[in-house]
């Protein structure tokens, strides 16, 4: 029976009997070649042709690597110069007219949408940027208006398919699907998603037809938004889109690919539609296995089983994976795949020769995950000689030795409810703090970091290489701190920062100072555009053995009479932006980090640092995709962990926090429960929609909506910032408003940063002079 079925299946597949694939591969290059080439292009140091040549070489290298590793169906179209959702929008002509009016080349028009554009008096803001589901990757938010005419106009996908086919690659074309595109976009001018269904159906049908002409066998349509809560109306939208897109019979087989969770709300609808393949995540979407057990899986479709974790760096435990596949019990053909795109892990663990063998042997980055898929496939299909893979893997997992700290466990186990509560209540503290600091209305500050110029990076590299002493390194940073304090004073800022010149990354820096972390040399992961981060790896119990930020803050404090703001990264963000262990609950690790940071906060306070910012930009990021699980699976321990960090400070010590580039409006209550005194957040790209939500929720925390988009190279005008501040004052109580950029200035140039801060101060001073303090109106 199985031989007959497999013979039939080979005919269905056009003769190609595949067993392995991945959803996507990191696109920044083995050694961040794309980052460096793109940034040179932005600085006019290389031509567009040179940038395109670099990109083509990266794609060729990645396809070759996957092919040589034995991956049989290789994604093409997962490469991007900035963001895949922005690629899809441009493919379909979803480009606001203001960018088209710039009359730029297609690539420059694309970058203008992602980064903004400024040339002389001509200036256009970038599109909003938000977090991609529950990851630290950012996507650019497409915009649909009355002017939007959806149609297939882009050539990027088809050009890359041609490249791959010429190189003998068995290409699986990849594009983000229409449902996710609509779900993540914003609609202006009274337009709604349903208005664009006919044109989207036509455009996606055209994509399929053109790929068929190129003899492409498979098109992967990514629909991760199906793993969110899907309402009845959204379910109908999904069905209407795909019943029409799939209606014509094409030679191209369609894989509906989901990831980041399960598809419980639409499983039956997906199974009934005429997809040839369905991609399910069995790591974060473990409930997908129960869906199959309960409902079965259609035997006329291929199950693309996401069983290798695309978001963490640990080796796959083959025995557990094989047991999972066995439990699925489906007679359908199974293709083994990654759970998500490998975009979210570094390129190769082979580079990490500085790591101890006891750690390195347990790591699998993108390249190693390709090998894992091939070995799992050999075991799953019982190929000759495959038993050795299982024996070696079982031996590895029998020998995991994570460092254990009994003192950390004792401290964590003995926490009481009162340890998470700060007294007195916030409104009492806020009055005490106003008397303590005597700040003007609309107090100004920055988020913390100032530009990490080339000499700063060189100083750090020279210390790492042993070319300078620690004393020489510290003296350089002290000179930088003294300079930036004077600049901030000259600008007129009210609450100053020391600039963070000693920090490489807001999470990596703290990880290096805490026990329990290990670090990579080349473990870069894309965050947005050309921006990469190098997440620490949590290996053991977390503890603090010495002060981390105190020396730099105290040095800065002695240079000025103005308040200095101490700067920490919060426990939830340190956890979410690291690669966590999988053998213990997240709550346990986050609590350990919170206790370590609590000691740091108390040391800062004891050294006369009375304003302390605890950044939590990743608080929302790791929310379960389904709202019903937000509190019991996450917020019920994430929010108390933040409170634990600052619960023991004095009432007159002011606690700030910062968040950026996420949908915070739907967790406003949880953010207020953090019990911070002040919160700053990204708002400038999102047209201050969060302000309306704060006002409606009677938000009690003082707020600093970012009035300057630091992720764009353009410098805002004084008038532009003045208009933004005016909007804020009309919606929020004057006494609760702070003025600041929307994020740290680390990635900007000094010229851009100082000019923008000068505009902020000029606008703020003008608004202050016009404010009627008696009633808080202009």
UniProtKB/TrEMBL annotation:
Binding positions for Zn(2+) 1 per the UniProt entry: 660, 682, 743
Ranges of residues in domain Cobalamin-independent methionine synthase MetE N-terminal: 20-330
Pathway(s) the chain acts in: Amino-acid biosynthesis; L-methionine biosynthesis via de novo pathway; L-methionine from L-homocysteine (MetE route): step 1/1
Job of this protein: Catalyzes the transfer of a methyl group from 5-methyltetrahydrofolate to homocysteine resulting in methionine formation.
Keyword terms of this UniProt record: Amino-acid biosynthesis, Metal-binding, Methionine biosynthesis, Methyltransferase, Repeat, Transferase, Zinc
Entry's Gene Ontology BP terms: methionine biosynthetic process; methylation
Co-factor remark: Binds 1 zinc ion per subunit.
One term of GO molecular function: zinc ion binding
Protein name from the UniProt record: 5-methyltetrahydropteroyltriglutamate--homocysteine methyltransferase
Cofactor: Zn(2+)
Highest taxon of the lineage: Bacteria
Organism of derivation: Liquorilactobacillus oeni DSM 19972
Catalysis performed (reactions): 5-methyltetrahydropteroyltri-L-glutamate + L-homocysteine = tetrahydropteroyltri-L-glutamate + L-methionine
E.C. code: 2.1.1.14
Binding residue positions for 5-methyltetrahydropteroyltri-L-glutamate: 32-35, 131, 136, 577, 621
Stored NCBIfam families: met_syn_B12ind, PRK05222.1
Residues at the active site: 711 (proton donor)
Start and end residues of each Cobalamin-independent methionine synthase MetE C-terminal/archaeal domain: 442-765
UniProt binding sites for Zn(2+) 2: 658
